[in-house]
Amino acid sequence: MHEKQQRRARTRRRAERRNAVREARRGRGTLAVLTTSALALIPGLAERATAQSQENGWSLQYGYSMYSEGSIAASKVSAGSRQRYDIDTHQFRLDAPIGSHISLGFDVAYEKMTGASPWLIEPNLAGDPVVVMTGASIVDARTDFLGSVTFVGEKSRTSLTGGASLEDDYTSINFGFGREKDFNEKASTFSWGVSFSTDESDPRATSFTPSPVKHKKKSGSFSMGLGQVIDRVSVAQTSIVLLYADGFLADPYKLVSSGGVNLVDRRPGTRTQVAWLTRYRRHIERAHGSFHADYQLNWDTWGLLANTVELGWHQELFRLFTLAPSVRYYSQSSADFYAPYFAAGLTAAQDASSDYRLSPYGAIAFKLRADVNVAELIKLPHARIGLQYEHYQSGGEFALSKVGTENPALVDFSVMMVTLKTGF
Amino acid sequence: MQGLKLALLLAACAGASACQHVEPWERNLLARPDMAWEVDDLAATQENHTYFSKEAAMPGGGVGGGGCGCN
Q1: pLDDT on residue B30
Q2: Nearest CA to CA, how far is A384 from chain B (Å)?
Q3: Which of A361, A367, A358 has its CA nearest to residue A403?
Q4: Which residues from A are below 8 Å from B35, CB to CB?
Q5: What pTM was computed for the model?
């Protein structure tokens, strides 16, 4: 009798192990849902974890996006081109399982940017801030590489990543480590990770800074999160990230105006940022659709406080399509050292920036996404085509708190994206 | 503060129905593609990089790829 029980227990354990490995490889069940949770917080690990959790064997993805900023109003510009940035991006991703416990990943992204950028903000005769734009002749390119290896255990995943981002005037190298552990019969997943990056900027000469110098920056992050199955149709995840940066954190291509005198953009040499992200997913069986809700709170030592809320509905249609409208709301306060322009007397040693990204504003974005499952049609596993359009509009009127003087360089943009994915 | 209240409300709502025991074979709906945190990881990467370049906050709780974002 005792032997029989032991045999049964051994058989059950073997079956559980087989199922766990199969589940991990196929990316099904709770594991697939939760694997992406807290690793999504770590630079570099986010994309990797998502891909690895959802694939069945090898997979290849390609994405192309067209980003286009709206022209800036003539009344807000005092000089330079009104034609802002256009960016074309190509992304490739390959995931390759090696045996049943190791998965390799490789990402490459290439983007090409053209257009004009805000350079300086100064008061016009009426005292209203207006932008001096650069010429529209800026042409820049960025190439991003990321490699990863993930070790898959029965109830845990451990990932190592390394990557680099290369531009003519900017180089960034990053490393990351992340670990996930399932417990509570895989209904809960605890994740944590660390990352480190070292950046060097080698700015191009401009008419204002004909002999620019090189700058360095180092940053490190720590994150942890908890994903939880709430019931058979809903899951939630909450996580926190701490990011510390030290070095040159200013924008070498921006100036500030102080009583008619132009000075370079200058910011504190350190910055600590904290982000708290909470996500919720609920499937509504009767509607064949799923509700998505994300909220993020950001705080940093520059005095910035930001809130982001995104709500979406993913509707399945005819078992072939998913149509997903969503809306994203964002609002931020200003940095302590921000002003659209400064009174006379600012010295080159004082922190000061007129960058619109440090100004108080809010933004609302509408997105529409369609996913078409073509796996049956072309006989390739997981084959899928995704189309997405986003329109983003920002302004002082969208901010949670009243904005006294809106930064005239605030940007509106639209993005059209197509992604192709297949397993093999 | 309004955003913070919304987050707490969401967390409370999630907690209210908190954590029924769900057997592994009852989790098929949770494994649907439209229940993923990101339904398209390439698109999410690109979105986060755009927000990283245009906003002061860390998008998606992390940095959406490297780069200066100086434009």
Answers
A1: 93
A2: 10
A3: A361
A4: 33, 235, 281, 283, 290
A5: 0.85
